[in-house]
Amino acid sequence: MKNQEVELASLSLQEKAEQLSLISKYKSEFLANMSHELRTPLNSLLILSKILSENKDSNLNPEQVKFATTVYSAGCDLLALINEILDLSKVEAGKMPIDLKKVEVAEVQSNAEQTFRPVAKHKGISFTIETDENVPQSFYTDSVRLHQILKNLLSNAFKFTEKGSVTLHLKSASHEKKFGIETLDQSKCVLAFSVQDTGIGIPLDKQRLVFEAFQQADGTTSRKYGGTGLGLTISREIARLLGGVIDVVSMPGEGSTFTLYLPEKYSGVGA
Ligand code: ADP
Fold it and tell me: Ligand 1 centroid vs 228 CA: distance in angstroms?
């Protein structure tokens, strides 16, 4: 009798879990389709407001040009937000394609250099890219997704740092380090991409929260820094898809270090 009861309970639990995962799948699919549909009209709005703001025929007064510029820049913000929601729903629905191929370490360095040197100059912050000697020259991952994660971590580092430095440090993780993640623990070599800043830091009790969707360390309406709170959630999910993980060490007022760990050679889900 007891066995039968347990069996019945576990069956109904299983059914509930299946229902839940179906609902979550529908939600993600809806979001993915919706975000896609929103982008089409938004793109024409962006193109036209950009043309208006350039005022090539000189038939708009300065105030009208300012309005057109505002429409354009607000539209760009909206597009960035829609893209983030689209990305998040794609990962959640298990529909983010991963394209694994050989990536050169030099390519990672030059990409970061090109994108963030101007930002560093503009903010008057020093920016260094360091690579340890024992880092393999190339590895296997999805380079577009890797750059997406690094871009997010570096943008955050620059956003939350007013003075001092931002460093991207590429190293091999120590063999002793255990992650509790099969793809990393079984990898011959684990690459670590550390983004270190001397910015505002994150209090210990917020360090888990910031990886949740729409969550920011400062969630008040009077907060100083803009953003959606989606970047780290997307980055964490993409890292998982690449067989890796992101961790953070931070001290309020002193700075933060976000580290992305990736296996040297990842050959797909469950590998
Ligand atoms: P967003 O930057 O759009 O708010 P993220 O998901 O990228 O979204 O980051 C979530 C929150 O984590 C940020 O709002 C901020 O509170 C905190 N955070 C992320 N990176 C840093 C950093 N380098 N220094 C301080 N706080 C950070």
Answer: 9
Measure 89 CA to ligand 1 centroid, in angstroms: 20
The model's pTM is 0.82
Q: How far, in Å, from the CA of 210 to the mean position of ligand 1? A: 6
Provide the mean pLDDT of the chain: 91
Q: In this predicted structure, what is the pLDDT of residue 89? A: 83
Instruction: Report the distance separating Cα 191 and Cα 177, nearest Å.
Output: 12
**Does 148 sit in the ligand 1 pocket, CB within 6 Å?**
no
Taking the CA of residue 255 as reference, the ligand 1 atom at the shortest distance is 24
The H or E element that residue 224 is part of is none
Q: Whose CA is nearest to atom 9 of ligand 1?
A: 229
**How high is the pLDDT of residue 234?**
93
Q: What angle do CA 187, 103, 81 make, to 5 degrees?
A: 100
> b/e per residue, 197-213, with b = 16+ CB within 10 A?
bbbbbbeeebbeebbeb
Q: Is 210 in the pocket of ligand 1 (CB under 6 A)?
A: yes
Cα 156 to Cα 66, 93, 107, 132, 254, distances in angstroms: 28, 26, 21, 23, 15
pLDDT digits (tens, 9 = 90+) for 195-205: 999 999 999 99
Q: Please give the pLDDT value at position 222.
A: 63
Structure tokens at 257: 């270090």
The ranges of the chain with pLDDT < 50 are: 270-271
Comparing CA positions, the residue from 49, 91, 83 lying closest to residue 66 is 49
% of the chain residues with pLDDT over 70: 97
- For residues 52 and 68, is the Cβ–Cβ distance under 8 A? yes
